[in-house]
Amino acid sequence: MFKNLIFQLHWLLGITAGLVLAVVGITGAMLSFEHDLLKAMNPGVMTVPAQARALSPAELLARIAVAEPGKTVQSLSLPGDPEESARVGFAPAADARPGPGGRVRGETRYVDPYTGQLLGQPKGEGFSG
Fold this sequence. Notes:
Blueprint: H1 2-32, H2 34-41, H3 57-67, E1 73-77, E2 86-90, E3 108-111
Antiparallel strand pairs: 1-2, 2-3
């Protein structure tokens, strides 16, 4: 009787711990491959067809300024991969509300590094924070 009770308790705790560890493992894998998953979910936003020559940073900034005249560019990240989009960060607006963590953040957009065209917002980007 006592041996059976200990076995059942061991089995219950093992199944519970196994489920918790499985959830931790799956969510950890999702976070580690977040960028790759977002790229796969958002072709045409985070990836662009490679072309012969990308615009210089100055040309890219000039085209962004024309497309978004009221915004101040705070950062520009150029891709190392010829099929990835560039990323531009705008300074927060004066009336922007604080986001998670209490910080005021500006908008981040993806840009075609060959044409300077601002691309749409990627689906699923806000999922992990």
